Amino acid sequence: MPNALFRKYAKYLSPEWLRMNVDEGQRFIAVSILCGFLCGIVAVLFHYSIEFIFHNLWEFASHQDTLSFVLVLLLAPTLGGLIVGVAVTKFAPGAAGSGIPQTKFAFYNRRGVISIVDGIWRFGLGSVFVGLGNALGREGPTVHICSSIASKLGRVFFKSTARQQAIVPVGMAAGIGAAFNAPLSAITFVFEELLDKFSTKAIGGIVIGVVTASVVSRLMLGEDPVIKTLKGVQFTTEPWMLIAIPLGILAGFIGHYFVYAILESRQYVKNVKSVPAWVKPAIGGLCTGIFGVSAYFLTKLCSHNNTGENGVFSIGYESLQHAFEGSLALWVLFFLFIFKTLAVIVNYATGGSGGLFAPTLFIGGMLGGIIGVGLTQFSGSELASNHQVIGGCVLLGMGAMFGSVIRCPFTSLFIIFELTGNYTLILPLMFGNILSWQIARRLGVVSIYNALLIQDKIDIRKFPTYRGSQDYRNLPVATIMTHEPLTLLSCMNCEQAIKHLSLSHVKFHGYPVVNKEGELLGMVMHHELYENAKELTLEALVVDQSVVTVTPETSIQAAARELIRNDYQQLPVVSKSSSKKLLGFLTLNDIARQQNSCDEDDIEVADDTITIQPKLS
Q1: What b/e sequence results for 267-291 when a residue is b if at least 16 CB atoms lie within 10 Å of its CB, and e otherwise?
Q2: Which residues of 434-445 are buried (b: 16+ CB within 10 A; e: fewer)?
Q3: Rounded to an integer, what distance in angstroms lies between the CA atom of residue 497 and that of residue 502?
Q4: Contacts by 158-164, CB closer than 8 A, 24 or more apart
Q5: pLDDT for residue 75 is more than 90
Q6: Nearest-5° angle of CA 81, CA 82, CA 88?
Q7: Residues 6+ positions from 106 with CB-CB distance below 8 Å
Q8: Could you tell me if 425 and 333 lie in one domain?
Q9: pLDDT digits (tens, 9 = 90+) for 126-163
Q10: Where are the alpha helices (DSSP H) in 63-113?
């Protein structure tokens, strides 16, 4: 009887029946609720898995003698890196990094299709990598995992590719909301980082997913914010809050160079071919172990109660909590700031699986703590014992650093409020965050997640940030250049070059000429191949030629000026460290296409659906 009853009503739960009998708008709401529910559970399980692994690792290491303690904390992150290295190289290449760039790429370049298998791999590898002590965060991977769940639900319940794409932001927001217990931040982050502009029509499904995921998260984890110390503390406007100005400036510069160090280190590691790719995350893990152990013993020497801090390892919220309480000495804060920064750079550059949200907040908190302790120690007696001032500075530092690194100013405001449950520092927090964000924007036009995609030679022209005409001139050439140009070998003669080009079915005004080592020697024009003797080598054509080049960092506007000044149709793009290392190719057509791209594509959001409608020219 129960089986017959189940068979009778089971059809009403099948995707086929729902697609045929339920209105698409209603179905979208139902799927958003289901997505939020699943994402909430998965995000909490991901949190528990990391906490469980690291807690047991630290408990085990703490009960060993000093030598064994050091060995365990050196080997554990190394093992985590080795597991990730092998898995990413052999089975799951999409599980490296934070997961947010992968989500953005899939949303715009693959119509929101993210494999659920990638999400499963991300869950397992993120748990192992961060749980075994590596210094990255869980929030970025949670976004990727939950977006893969949303993508799978979209493909199951909707035939329309537009609806399948539209459900991905719901999963993204639900993941952030559940991971941080921060629903407002989740909503603003999706619009600032993924959709790039606010829409009242897109917000419906996102809010439903976030609310559902947050309810699940709070039922499983409790109502308390992540950082509990300042909950309920009331700040009154006082002169010391002016510290937000220098702190915002400092965070703006430090955040920019932190991002620069990650990108440069990552590119350097990618260029090292003598070390197998699967070994590189293990090397990063070993370095993190060295940094973490060094920080532990140094903070133990400098602490008031002879207790070391383990904040360099894993998420590090416990040390951040201590910083809020004002219980960390100045040198303890300094060592945590330095070693955590180094560990995050090395872990991310070597291909670890983890995010940048939590590390950024940690580094900003330590920076704010240093400023706060210095302020209380070198000011009058009125502030000398005021731990509330130190906690307030930690809060300001977290927000300012998040604004400069992640480049989402509204999210940087809301996330601090929701992480701590404290809303009374809003004025200095707003000032410091916006100041740091503006400084970072001036120093580097491209945000970190887009810069990572550019570094991986992924086309981001479909992204809304790069469709608008208001700022495209200041974007770097790397955003629009061709990364794999058609080249000619210098040993070819004109006849061989013409034959080679005829086989490629591609025609340009000119072509880079390279030697056998791939070094750029010059440019040969298409007409020159026909005007010179067939036996003449390309090396003879470009001998003593002065080549005009640009680097990937050159702005589009500056590159356009070079093309116009020299009356060229194209320019080779070379490394800024070597004018002989060819990285790509830029043409006038690339610039014209970017200039007119805001007219070629319009994003419209209707009935909770995101669609891309091309306009015919």
Answers
A1: eebeeeeeeebbebbbbbbbbbbbb
A2: bbbbbbbbeebb
A3: 9
A4: 158/19, 158/24, 158/27, 158/28, 158/31, 159/19, 160/24, 160/609, 161/111, 161/112, 162/609, 162/610, 162/611, 163/24, 163/28, 163/609, 164/111, 164/112, 164/113
A5: yes
A6: 85
A7: 112, 113, 114, 147, 151, 168
A8: yes
A9: 999 999 999 999 888 999 999 999 999 998 888 888 88
A10: 66-90, 100-109
Distances 309 to 69, 130, 226, 453 between C-alpha atoms, Å: 14, 17, 18, 35
pLDDT of 348 reads: 95
pLDDT in tens, 87-104: 999 898 888 888 899 999
477: three-class secondary structure by DSSP: helix
Q: Collapsing DSSP states into helix, strand and coil, what is residue 613?
A: strand
Single-letter amino acid code for the residue at 87? A
Question: Are both 451 and 472 inside the same structural domain?
Answer: no
Residues 86 and 352: beta-carbon distance below 8 Å: no
User: 3-state SS string over 524-576?
Assistant: EEHHHHHHCCCCCEHHHHHCCCCCCCECCCCEHHHHHHHHHHHCCCEEEEEEC
Residue 310: partners with Cβ closer than 8 Å, 6 or more residues away: 58, 292, 296, 316, 318, 319
- Considering the domain architecture, whether residues 71 and 179 belong to the same structural domain is answered as yes
Rounded-to-integer distance, Cα 419 and Cα 88, Å = 32
Interatomic CA distance for residues 551 and 189, integer angstroms: 32
| Cα dihedral value 336, 338, 344, 350, nearest 10 | -130
Say if residue 602's pLDDT is above 70.
no
Same domain, 414 and 283: yes
Question: pLDDT tens, 225-264?
Answer: 666 655 556 677 778 888 899 999 999 999 999 999 999 9
Which three-class secondary structure string do you get for 159-221?
CCHHHHHHCHHHHHHHHHHHHHCCHHHHHHHHHHHHHCCCCCCCHHHHHHHHHHHHHHHHHHH
Whether residues 440 and 514 share a domain: the answer is no
Q: What is the pTM of this model?
A: 0.82
pLDDT of residue 4: 57
Indicate the SS3 state at residue 136: coil
Is 611 among the domain residues?
Answer: no
Please give the angle made by the CA atoms of 510, 515 and 518, to the nearest 5 degrees.
90
Q: For residue 343, give both structure tokens.
A: 């560990």
| pLDDT at residue 610 is higher than 60 | no
Q: How far apart are CA 174 and CA 387, in angstroms?
A: 35
The sign of the CA dihedral 531, 532, 535, 536 is negative
Expressed in angstroms, the distance from the first to the final Cα of the chain is 64
Domain region containing 545? 467-597
Radius of gyration, CA atoms only, the chain: 27
Q: 413 Cβ partners below 8 Å, 6+ apart? A: 399, 426, 429, 430, 433
How far apart CA 396 and CA 417 sit, in angstroms, is 11
Handedness of CA 425, 430, 432, 437 (dihedral sign): positive
Q: What CATH number is given to the structural domain containing 528?
A: 3.10.580.10
- Does 288 score more than 60 pLDDT? yes
Positive or negative: CA dihedral 45, 51, 57, 63: negative
Predicted confidence at residue 233, as pLDDT, reads: 63
